[in-house]
Write a structure and sequence with these properties.
Elements: H1 2-59, H2 73-91, H3 94-110, H4 112-120, H5 123-131, H6 136-150, H7 154-162, H8 178-191, H9 206-215, H10 221-235, H11 241-246, H12 249-256, H13 263-273, H14 277-285, H15 291-297, H16 303-317, H17 321-329, H18 332-342, H19 345-357, H20 387-438
């Protein structure tokens, strides 16, 4: 009985050793076949180039000894480096794998064909497993290599997702240094170009990582810009609206839109989310809306931000009396009047449309033709606005328009006076300089 047990244990150990050796043999034979195919194609290129050069030399009647076809030492070194690097990545220690990942990053950056070859050698799966490592250098080198391997190839991106890169993202962003944090953001931006079925947004760690990175005070502005660009790509897919809102994207974007360096990208994503039911509801329930949006309307140096903000306000105000009332109390009408005079053509058009909805902000309900209505009023009942209140509303609008015009005229006059003073000073200095030059003594 004991002899049979020893025989079975020895048999299992020998079989495991045999399987490991078989894997190694299969791996190296695969590398050898790939390198042979690459070398043969290179030889064909050399032969064709030699034939062309020989025909040219024959036409010129110049006799030279035939060239010996051999591999250049550079290609030979490259193949040796590739074989050694891939071997270390698969079977090496932690330090060797880190060095191999750095070498793969260099090779992938220099040669586009190398990226496809790396994927065929099973490099992506090993690098994805290294991303989950607790060692910062080990993790950073793997992320940087994956970034280079994802550039310009849709297949490699899909292979990374299939290998589980979306579930291996770090759950605690605060422990990452700035370079690793930036690397993860760049990698996710590259992967966000995949279609919705290929990229599991709702069931992965992508959105929690992006939200935590953007909400962190330690994250640099450039890294937040990459995260916002990734969110913008995800917002283009309608199915991603629910997971984005659920993970707090609206609240994060509303806080980032007040930062002028990040405002344009944040508002662009909010403009995609506000047209969805959940996105609009999340914005309406936020305490900073619409006051923060009205503040952005006053940014004369950011016309694109004004256009995005006016669009978001139009969507929020459409068929929502409560939102229009909140906007009116926050002082949107004077700001809209100023924008209609000094804004870009697009924001002027949107501001005029909004002003049509705020003709009579003191009344409980708006007229049937003054803007979008929450409830339809029958023509037999008539307008809910009395003639007296309508007249008061017209007078109020005239006074607001006059005040805005006076304010803008004062601003324009003040700017003109400053320009005239500067021009007078410049002319005075010019006259003094020219008169001093004309003196003979």
């Amino acid at each position: 009985m004991s002899s049979s047990r020893t025989q079975s244990s020895s048999y299992s150990s020998s079989s495991s050793v045999w399987q490991h050796q078989y894997m190694k043999l299969h791996f190296f034979s695969r590398i050898r076949s790939l390198l042979k195919s690459k070398a043969s194609s290179h030889k064909r290129d050399l032969q064709s180039s030699n034939e062309i050069s020989r025909t040219q030399k024959d036409s010129e009647k110049v006799v030279e000894p035939p060239e010996i076809l051999s591999k250049p030492p550079e290609d030979e070194n490259e193949e040796v480096v590739l074989q050694r690097t891939v071997k270390k990545l698969h079977f090496g220690t932690f330090e060797e794998k880190e060095k191999a990942a750095i070498e793969i990053e260099k090779l992938s950056r220099e040669d586009k064909k190398m990226r496809k070859l790396m994927a065929e050698l099973g490099v992506l799966q090993v690098l994805v497993s290294m991303v989950a490592s607790d060692i910062s250098g080990h993790q950073r080198s793997a992320v940087m290599a994956l970034i280079q391997l994802s550039h310009g190839t849709h297949t490699n991106k899909a292979l990374m997702v299939n290998a589980g890169i979306c579930s291996k993202l770090p759950k605690n962003v605060e422990i990452l240094d700035q370079s690793t944090r930036y690397g993860f953001a760049e990698l996710l931006l590259s992967l966000s170009s995949l279609t919705s079925p290929q990229l599991p947004v709702s069931s992965s760690q992508i959105l929690p990582f992006l939200m935590e990175t953007m909400n962190s005070d330690m994250t640099e502005t450039k890294c937040k810009e990459l995260c916002l660009a990734t969110i913008n790509n995800l917002c283009l897919v309608l199915e991603n609206a629910v997971p984005l809102v659920t993970n707090g994207a609206v609240k994060t974007l509303l806080s980032l839109m007040l930062v002028k360096d990040l405002s344009e990208k944040a508002l662009a994503s909010l403009g995609q989310l506000v047209v969805t039911q959940m996105g609009k509801k999340a914005m309406e329930e936020d305490s900073t809306v619409p006051k923060s949006l009205i503040e952005i309307l006053t940014w004369e140096d950011k016309p694109k931000c004004q256009e995005y903000t006016a669009y978001i306000l139009m969507v929020l105000a459409h068929q929502s009396w409560s939102q229009r009332e909140k906007m009116a109390k926050a002082g949107i009408v004077p700001v809209l009047l100023e924008v209609t005079l000094l804004g870009s053509p697009l924001v002027q058009k949107r501001a005029v449309k909004l002003l049509q909805w705020f003709k009579d902000e003191r009344n409980v309900r708006m007229g049937p033709h003054s803007g979008p209505q929450t409830s339809r009023v029958s023509s037999s009942i008539g307008s809910p606005v009395s003639p007296r209140s309508a007249e008061e509303g017209k007078k109020m609008m005239k006074n607001l328009v006059k005040q805005s015009l006076y304010k803008n005229m004062e601003m324009i006059t003040r700017r003109g006076n400053v320009d005239l003073e500067r021009e007078a000073c410049r002319l005075k200095s010019l006259i003094i300089s020219t008169s001093s030059k004309s003196l003979t003594y």
